[in-house]
Each structure stands twice: as structure tokens, then as C-alpha cells.
């Protein structure tokens, strides 16, 4: 008779080196995606309320929103890990960029362009900087 698979405890999962690395990156990316979603919703409300906004402003605003999301993703990931801020920050920002790229590809058929690569580079650099700032921030323990 086959034994049922044993469910791993939280302690066993936390000792798994792959899970230890991926957990902060995934949670940081989800936090960054939530910030991007909220900011894009605000942008859509502004666009509806303004009725006339120069078309040339939309791309820079979306890059700014993506950079803010990457910053938050990198900060969150590095804060969770407590070490290697630049690596965790850049990793979570890169994963967030991948998600945004796939979403853009699925919705609008957006392809790889110089603008898209520049946006990705800005996001990764912003996430890495946020990771460094997060790890170097002093905690307020009393």
C-alpha cells in the first residue's frame, strides 16, 4: 500500500535553498505589481477626467509607474531577504519587467523595441538601487 505524501512543514521549506532565494523575489514582484496596478488605475482615472492629455506624455508616465513598481519590488524583496540587496532588488525588478512585457505582448502585441529594452534597464537599475537602500537601512529596534 502506498503511503500518502507527507506535507512539508514551514521549517523544511525555509531550509530549502531554492525557496530561500525565490521567496523574496516572488513576494517583491507581487508587491511591485500591486503598486503598478494601483498607479495605472489612478492614471486611467486622470486620463478620463482630463479628456485631453498629450499623447507624448503617456509613455514617460508609464515608464515612471513601472520604475516606481520596480523600486517597491526591489525594496520589498531585499527587506525580506535581509542580505544581497542589489541581487534581490534587481531580480524582483527583472521578474516584474518580464510580467509587464508578457502582459503588453498579450494585450497589444507589443514587441521588443529599443524603448522596451530601455524600460527594462531602468526597472532593473531602480530595483537594484532600492535593494541596496533597503539592506543598508538601519532598523529601529528598541
From TrEMBL:
The keyword ATP-binding does not apply. InterPro entries: DUF3792_TM (IPR023804). The chain crosses the membrane at residues 21-50, 56-75, 87-106, 112-135. Pfam families: DUF3792. It comes from the Bacteria. Keywords: Membrane, Transmembrane, Transmembrane helix. NCBIfam families: TIGR04086_membr. This is TIGR04086 family membrane protein.
Amino acid at each position: 500500500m502506498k503511503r500518502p505524501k507527507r506535507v512539508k512543514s514551514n521549517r523544511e521549506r525555509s531550509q530549502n535553498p531554492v525557496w530561500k532565494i525565490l521567496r523574496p523575489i516572488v513576494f517583491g514582484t507581487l508587491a511591485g505589481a500591486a503598486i503598478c496596478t494601483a498607479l495605472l488605475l489612478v492614471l486611467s482615472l486622470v486620463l478620463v477626467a482630463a479628456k485631453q492629455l498629450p499623447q507624448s506624455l503617456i509613455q514617460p508616465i508609464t515608464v515612471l509607474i513601472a520604475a516606481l513598481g520596480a523600486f517597491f519590488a526591489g525594496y520589498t524583496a531585499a527587506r525580506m531577504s535581509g542580505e544581497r540587496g542589489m541581487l534581490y532588488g534587481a531580480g524582483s525588478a527583472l521578474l516584474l519587467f518580464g510580467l509587464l512585457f508578457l502582459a503588453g505582448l498579450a494585450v497589444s502585441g507589443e514587441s521588443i523595441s529599443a524603448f522596451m529594452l530601455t524600460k527594462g534597464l531602468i526597472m532593473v537599475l531602480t530595483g537594484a538601487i532600492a535593494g541596496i537602500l533597503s539592506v543598508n537601512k538601519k532598523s529601529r529596534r528598541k
